[in-house]
Specification:
Elements (H helix, E strand, L loop, with lengths): L5 E5 L1 E4 L5 E4 L1 H13 L5 E4 L10 E9 L2 E7 L3 H8 L5 E6 L5 E7 L16
Parallel strand pairs: 4-8
Antiparallel strand pairs: 1-6, 2-3, 4-5, 5-6, 7-8
Length: about 120
């Protein structure tokens, strides 16, 4: 897969699924990138937010911050999963982080609304 990036998070005040609100800054996004590289380079992409981070349908290859947005590129994505995303079965995404800002997984969501609405559209190419 080409090294193409997908928006997965952005700065601002966001409320998670437990009702907790937090103001996220560019420093937070940079910390997420740093933690990905140093503490958890094997971050899966999943359907929804599974408790066990499995099954993995692919993996984050790289993270980067541009302006107020966090982007990811992916590797080893299963062809069936790519096709499901292309068909519109998973239109939105959500990042799962530990309290220390270590990425756990990227959830591709079906009908479930993401905490951050209005992210750039994405489809595997």
């Amino acid at each position: 897969m080409k090294n193409e990036f997908c928006e997965i998070f952005r700065t601002g005040t966001h409320t998670d699924s437990k009702g907790t609100s937090r103001n996220w800054t560019t420093d937070d996004l940079e910390k997420i990138c740093e933690n990905f590289e140093s503490k958890n380079p094997d971050v899966p992409i999943c359907c929804g937010h599974p408790k066990t981070n499995s099954p993995a349908y692919g993996w984050i290859e790289k993270l980067k911050v541009e302006g107020n947005k966090l982007y990811a590129s992916f590797k080893d994505v299963q062809p069936e999963f790519k096709e499901a995303v292309k068909k519109g079965l998973f239109k939105t995404r959500s990042i799962s982080l530990t309290k220390d800002l270590i990425p756990r997984h990227i959830a591709f969501l079906g009908a479930q609304a993401p905490a951050i609405k209005g992210m750039e559209a994405f489809c595997f190419r």
